[in-house]
C-alpha cells in the first residue's frame, strides 16, 4: 500500500482533491451553498474536473486510492464527533430498518433489472450495490460470484451515479420535508448508496442529522459481511464447485476504527477543542474522497451499456427513498 506514496499519480490526485475539498469548504460558507454542504460541493467540483482529461489520466491510480482509503480514514476520524451516549437510544430500530431496507432494495432493483432485460449477473451486482454500500458492495460481492469484470465496472458506475443523484435530491428535500434532524439523518443513511453520500447529505442537515445518517448507514454496511457469506454459499451450491481456498469476505474493518474513536471521544480525556480539530481534519479527508469519487464517475460506460440498468437502479432507488422517508417519519 505504501508504494503508492512514491508515485506521481498519487501526488497529482492528492493536490487536486485537496484543492477541491478546501474549495468546497470555502464555498459552503456562502448563503444558499451552505444548504448543500462542503462535501457535496467537493463532489460536484470533482465531477467538473473530468473536463480536464489529462488531469484525470495522470492521476487515475491516486484517485482510486484517495476515494477508497481517505474515505475510510475520514470516517474513522469523524467518529470523534459522534457521542454514543446521546445516540444509544436509537437502539434496535436502526438495525431492523437496515435489514428491511437492504432486503427490500435487493428484491426491487433485481425485479426492475430483469423486467428491463438486464442480464442476471449485472442485475445481481446492481441490486446489492444499491442496497448495501454502493461500490464497496459491488466489489465485495463480485468475487463471491466470479463476476465478469465489465459487469462489475458498470455496476460500480451505476451505483456511484445513483448515489450522487439522490444525494442532491435529498439535500434539495431538506427544506421541503417535515422532518427533524434525526429523521432527516435516518432517511439519508437508510437510502443513500455510498457512505460518503450519506455523510454528505447528513452534513447538509446539521450535526444531529449527520450523526444519525452515519449510524443508519453503518447499520446497512454491517450487513455486507453476512450478505457475502450467503451469496457465496448459494453460488457454490448452484454451481456445485468445491475449493480448498476460502473466500476472503469484504468485512468493513474501518467500522471498528469509527466505533473506537466514537467511544474515545465520548468517554476519553480529549477536550472539546481537540475533538473539533480532529473533526475538521475528518472533513478535509472526506472532501478529498468525495472529489475523487466525482473525478472517477465513468459516464462513457453508462452511455454505452448502462441505459436499462441505470433506469432499473433509478426506479429501485426511488422506492428505497420512499421506504426510508416513510420509516424515518413514522418510527424515529
Question: How would you sum up this structure, described in words?
Answer:
Pfam families: Cons_hypoth698 (PF03601). The protein is mostly helical and 332 residues long. The protein has one domain (81-284, 297-331). 76% of the residues lie in helices and 0% in strands. It contains 17 helices and no strands. Helix 6 packs across helix 12 (207-221). It is globular, with a radius of gyration of 19 Å. The model has no long low-confidence stretch (mean pLDDT 86).
Radius of gyration: 19 Å
Q: Please summarize the sheet with the most strands.
A: none
Low-confidence stretches: none
Number of helices: 17
What distance separates the N and C termini? 41 Å
- Write the element-wise H/E pattern from the N-terminal end onward: HHHHHHHHHHHHHHHHH
Total DSSP E strands: 0
- Counting structural domains, the number is 1
- Apparent shape: globular
Give the helix level as a range of percent: over 70%
Mean pLDDT: 86
| Beta-strand percent range | under 5%
Class by alpha and beta content: mainly alpha
Amino acid at each position: 500500500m505504501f508504494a503508492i506514496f512514491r508515485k506521481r499519480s498519487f501526488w497529482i490526485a492528492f493536490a487536486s482533491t485537496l484543492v477541491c475539498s478546501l474549495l468546497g469548504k470555502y464555498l459552503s460558507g456562502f448563503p444558499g451553498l451552505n444548504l448543500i454542504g462542503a462535501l457535496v460541493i467537493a463532489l460536484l467540483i470533482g465531477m467538473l474536473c473530468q473536463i480536464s482529461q489529462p488531469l484525470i489520466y495522470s492521476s487515475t491510480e491516486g484517485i482510486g486510492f484517495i476515494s477508497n482509503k481517505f474515505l475510510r480514514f475520514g470516517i474513522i476520524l469523524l467518529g470523534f464527533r459522534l457521542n454514543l451516549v446521546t445516540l444509544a437510544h436509537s437502539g434496535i430500530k436502526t438495525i431492523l430498518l437496515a435489514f428491511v431496507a437492504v432486503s427490500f432494495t435487493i428484491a426491487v432493483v433485481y425485479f426492475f433489472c430483469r423486467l428491463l432485460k438486464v442480464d442476471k449477473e449485472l442485475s445481481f451486482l446492481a441490486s446489492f450495490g444499491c442496497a448495501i454500500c454502493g461500490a464497496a458492495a459491488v466489489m465485495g460481492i463480485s468475487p463471491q460470484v466470479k463476476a465478469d469484470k465489465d459487469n462489475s465496472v458498470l455496476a460500480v458506475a451505476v451505483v456511484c451515479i445513483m448515489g450522487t443523484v439522490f444525494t442532491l435530491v435529498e439535500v434539495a428535500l431538506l427544506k421541503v420535508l417535515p422532518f427533524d434532524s434525526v429523521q432527516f439523518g435516518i432517511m439519508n443513511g437508510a437510502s443513500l448508496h455510498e457512505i460518503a453520500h450519506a455523510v454528505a447529505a447528513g452534513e447538509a442537515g446539521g450535526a444531529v442529522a449527520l450523526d444519525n445518517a452515519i449510524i443508519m448507514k453503518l447499520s446497512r454496511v454491517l450487513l455486507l459481511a453476512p450478505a457475502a457469506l450467503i451469496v457465496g454459499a448459494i453460488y457454490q451450491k448452484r454451481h456445485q464447485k468445491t475449493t480448498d481456498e476460502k473466500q476472503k469476505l469484504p468485512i468493513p474493518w474501518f467500522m471498528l476504527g469509527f466505533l473506537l474513536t466514537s467511544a474515545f471521544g465520548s468517554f476519553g480525556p480529549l477536550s472539546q477543542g481537540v475533538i473539533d480539530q480532529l473533526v475538521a481534519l475528518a472533513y478535509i479527508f472526506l472532501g478529498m474522497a468525495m472529489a475523487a469519487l466525482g473525478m472517477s464517475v465513468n459516464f462513457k460506460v453508462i452511455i454505452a451499456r448502462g441505459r436499462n440498468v441505470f433506469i432499473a437502479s433509478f426506479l429501485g432507488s426511488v422506492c428505497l427513498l420512499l421506504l426510508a422517508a416513510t420509516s424515518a417519519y413514522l418510527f424515529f
